[in-house]
Amino acid sequence: MRKRFKAICMISVLRLGHRSQRDVRISTHCGLVARALGASEIIYSGEPDPKLVDSVKSVAKNWGGPFSASYEKSWRKVMAKYKRKGFYICHLSMYGLPIQTIIKKVRKRRNVLVVIGAEKVPGEVYRLADYNIAVTNQPHSEVAALAVLLHEYFKGKELGKKFKRAKLRIVPQERGKQIKSLRQR
Amino acid sequence: MRKRFKAICMISVLRLGHRSQRDVRISTHCGLVARALGASEIIYSGEPDPKLVDSVKSVAKNWGGPFSASYEKSWRKVMAKYKRKGFYICHLSMYGLPIQTIIKKVRKRRNVLVVIGAEKVPGEVYRLADYNIAVTNQPHSEVAALAVLLHEYFKGKELGKKFKRAKLRIVPQERGKQIKSLRQR
């Protein structure tokens, strides 16, 4: 039996270079994965996209939290601010060092800012990050890389996370679908 | 040190209900994640989209394999065929049973067909699957669910997978990017 998930740490996710037409679904997936797998918030930079932020917020409102989504124009300011606050900055990149050789060091940090890029990531991000981490050195997906990082960081305990103030909850089924509506406590 | 990855098993991925305009990036990510994290192939159903199949194939050509991408109009036929071939069918769904309670049983199977849906999955899929598996019962992303399933199935060993006949390979770096061009052996 895996231990119960406890949020004794704070993982924030910074999504770089969002483009409001092209990236809307991938960026939404990044936000939902961040929430579902134990992060506390996602911050989007790139093109402003209030609909994107609202759609992630509305999932958190219905399915529980705490989880916040927000937009910040300057990723530089976000990285500087979180560094000042003592966050460890992990940039996910296919060019980085293999996650399996680094994850133990990351787990020692209670507060982590995970940076995930879009198409082209400025060189400055690589320099500002405490670690550039690769979830395989193969081309694939920032959504998957974020999922594996969170799953490894929390050692699978995030899978049992309970969400507070949920209006909706799924009752797991062998076949079919069952959703329960909950009164807010 | 994690054990070396060995392909003693065959994981195929079936992506349901692809829509050529709306899903192209998510479906591409599904294919690339399948390849990068140790699956042997992806089969797309839904709207035919030769560009999608070609783009996943071309990644496998440049970055190595073996990995195949293909299109089949009827997901029903694919599921029936793989069932006949003895594949265990795992359908990823937020409504299913928690992966952490089922993964041990799945790992015992050498040949697995992982089915991932798009927006609306027909009830028949739930009935045909040997298991409906949830990577958390929260709404998030089929890309992330696929990544966590493969990562759990292979116990992280897929992260060290070597790809054959690669033309390109990344040399992992603490900072910056290094790609090596390889002569094909």
Brief summary:
Two copies of one chain form a homodimer. Chain A has 185 residues and is of the alpha/beta class.
Q: How are the SSEs placed, and which strands pair?
A:
The structure is a homodimer of 185-residue chains.
Chain A: E1 10-18, H1 24-36, E2 41-46, H2 50-63, E3 68-71, H3 75-84, E4 88-98, H4 99-107, E5 111-116, H5 123-128, E6 131-134, H6 142-153, E7 168-170, E8 179-181
Parallel strand pairs in A: 1-2, 1-5, 2-3, 4-5, 4-6
Antiparallel strand pairs in A: 7-8
Overall description:
The structure is a homodimer of 185-residue chains. The first copy, chain A, is of the alpha/beta class and 185 residues long. Chain A is built from 6 helices and 8 strands, in the order βαβαβαβαβαβαββ. The first copy, chain A, has helices at residues 24-36, 50-63, 75-84, 99-107, 123-128, 142-153; strands at residues 10-18, 41-46, 68-71, 88-98, 111-116, 131-134, 168-170, 179-181. The first copy, chain A, has a 6-stranded parallel sheet, sandwiched between helices. In chain A, strand 7 (168-170) and strand 8 (179-181) form a beta hairpin. The longest helix of chain A is centred in the N-terminal third of the chain and has 14 residues, at 50-63. The first copy, chain A, is globular. Chain A starts with 9 loop residues before the first strand and ends with a strand. Chains A and B meet through helix 1, strand 4, helix 5, strand 6 and helix 6 of A and helix 1, strand 4, helix 5, strand 6 and helix 6 of B.
